[in-house]
Design goal:
Oligomer: single chain
Order of helices and strands: HHHHHHH
Strand content: under 5%
CATH architecture of one domain: Up-down Bundle
Helix content: over 70%
Largest sheet: none
Amino acid sequence: MHISYMSVCFVFVSFYASVLPFTQCTTLEEVNHFNSHRNTNSKVHKVNHQKSSDIALHGFLLWGSMGFLMPLGILTIRGSNKSEPGSRKSRVLFYFHVTFQMLAVLLATVGAAMSLKKFENSFDNNHQRLGLALYGAILLQAFIGFFRPHRGKKERSYWYLAHWILGTIVSVVGIINIYTGLKAYHKRTLKSTKFWSILFTVEVIFIGLIYLFQDKLEYMKKQRVIEGSDESTMSSYQDIPERQNQKEMLPVACGKINALGNLFD
């Protein structure tokens, strides 16, 4: 009986000694998982408080540059093309175009400097890569704009084609990069960007409609003028018989060069 009791005690002790290390390992893993989860939450919380305002300011700077001023400059220069070259309206719209584009370059420069100074730029995502390429394209576009050939030169057509293509590409890719920036902001700070995405989409649609209707508005004005001229032409055609009757009642003019000679015939 004494032997069986000792055997039972030995079995319990052996079982406890074999299970205890696994229990300690499981407990240690749970503690480490909890600590890592807590560290992740604290890291996100830290990002929200330290960099959220900087990221938002960076986004607003590039929004104003790529998403507003640059398309507005394109609309103004398209408006100047409808006016006579050298006119006062053409010069004013051209200076507005230059002002908007220079402000866009300035805001983009501040946003890029802010990104290099305060953010981690590993360039392992599409937003940072597009942003770097866009900033180089903006500087190149400004450089091309300063060295504009005069009208009448052969280089003017090539300059216009390069300036137009590069400006259109920069504007379109800049709008796309704003959407990628909103997505990166949501991923980084866990804040909703639905309102800003909708607001920016409404702005893009509004600018696109103005861009499309700039040419059509002039066409509609010309159509109205043509219709008015047709009506005036029809009214003039209706007045032709009356004018012929009036001419029949007038005295027949003489074939002499000096009309005063009729008085002395």
